[in-house]
Amino acid sequence: MDVSIVIPLYNEEESLPELCDWIVRVVNENNFFYEIVMVDDGSTDDSWCVIEKLSAGNPNIKGIKFQRNYGKSAALNEGFKAAQGNVVITMDADMQDSPDEIPGLYHMITEDKFDMVSGWKKKRYDNKLTKNFPSKIFNAMARKISGIKLHDFNCGLKAYRKKVVKSIEIYGEMHRNIPVLAKWSGFRKIGEKVVEHRPRKYGVTKFGWDRFINGFLDLSTLTFVGRFSKRPMHFFGLFGTIFFIIGFISSLYLIIAKIVDVNYGITNKPIFYIALVVMVIGMQLFLTGFIAELVVRNAADRNNYLIEKKAGFS
Predict the structure, then answer these.
(1) DSSP 42
(2) Alpha-carbon span 150 to 307, nearest angstrom
(3) Does residue 237 contact residue 289 with C-beta atoms inside 8 Å?
(4) CB atoms < 10 A from the CB of 67, how many?
(5) What CA–CA distance (Å, rounded) separates 90 from 165?
(6) Helix count (H) and strand count (E) of the chain?
(7) Which end of the chain has fewer CB atoms < 10 Å from its terminal CB, N or C?
């Protein structure tokens, strides 16, 4: 199969027929062997009924329905599991991403040999205060922390080699940091393509300022996990050792000072209490490292979601 188009959605019943018609027209014009995988993230409108009708009319359209709302990351994770195309392209269901970008993204993966290509909505039609400004701040921080030179980490329009989506795990709200996940999984050739951003035609946005804070926290977590998830003792043990040595040297100084001068007061010196606290912190960090090592070696699968229905899957 040439291409899988994965579409996470929540309450987008109005846009789905038009979006699917547009995608089908584009892939047929380019003679792609394709599938469209729509993941309904627990919609409360008639989105699933629309998906079932679309699937009944076109066997290349498939659907997955969550029993409740889990979030975009969960929807993408399940969509990636189901995708069979050599190239996987994601886009939002709100018609702000243009399916006309599919051929260009596809050829950047197959011909230019990129592992992943992220869309860059250079000209945006979103609210400047609630969406554009927070996005610029987040993208600047993401570039600085990750070292990946992308203008728009959070763009829903992306393309991947199949191996990439089968190698990464998306959970929580990590969909904003998929380029970082790909990099930490060993996929280094990450590119960018300027894509059209269209004004919203149906529905209302589901995101706002909160995604800036959540995105920063997730990026910090991902940076730590990417470096130390398989060796947490290297992080906690390092700082534990530093704190313990500082406390031990301070205590040793007080002991020697007391031996040299029996009248030297220890317990009335601030350094005495600082040394004790620092040594305790060092030991606690060591214990944290040991516990983290045990957790890493016994971690259970964290991506289990209740799937109520499927459509179009054999």
Answers:
(1) S
(2) 34
(3) yes
(4) 11
(5) 11
(6) 10, 8
(7) C
How many Å apart are CA 305 and CA 314, to the nearest integer? 20
- Alpha-carbon distance of 164 to 118, in angstroms, equals 13
Given a contact cutoff of 8 angstroms between Cβ atoms, the answer to whether 111 and 98 are in contact is: no
- Rounded Cα gap, residues 155 and 289, in angstroms: 36
**104 burial type by CB count under 10 A (0-12 exposed, 13-18 middle, 19+ buried):** middle
What does the block give as tokens for 305? 């979601």
Closest CA to 219 of 173, 273, 253: 173
Q: Facing residues of 118 across strands? A: 158, 192
The reported pLDDT for the residue numbered 265 is 78
Give the integer Cα–Cα distance in Å for 208 and 132: 10
Identity (one letter) of the amino acid at 229?
S
User: How many Å separate Cα 90 from the centre of its chain?
Assistant: 13
Q: What does pLDDT average to in each consecutive run of 10 residues of the chain (314 residues)?
A: 96 94 96 97 94 96 94 92 96 92 96 95 66 73 84 90 93 82 90 86 58 65 67 79 89 85 79 88 84 65 73 82
If 0-12 CB within 10 Å is exposed, 13-18 middle and 19+ buried, where does residue 94 land? buried
- CA–CA dist 66, 3 (Å, integer): 23
Per-residue HEC secondary structure of 162-214 comes to: HHHHCCCCCCCCHHHHHHHHHHHCCCCCEEEEECCECCCCCCCCCCCCHHHHH
| Distance of alpha carbon 106 from alpha carbon 87, whole angstroms | 7
Which helix (H) or strand (E) segment holds residue 310: the answer is strand 307-311
- Please list, in sequence order, all residues whose beta carbon lies within 8 angstroms of the beta carbon of residue 19, skipping any fewer than 6 positions away: 7, 93, 95, 99
CB atoms closer than 10 angstroms to residue 301: 6
pLDDT the model gives residue 176: 82
Question: Within 13 Å of residue 137, how many CA atoms lie on the same side as its CB?
Answer: 14
Length of the chain measured in residues: 314
Q: Judge contact between 114 and 94, C-beta under 8 A.
A: no
Residue 152 has a pLDDT of: 87
Pairing of strands 87-90, 34-40: unpaired
Its pTM stands at: 0.73
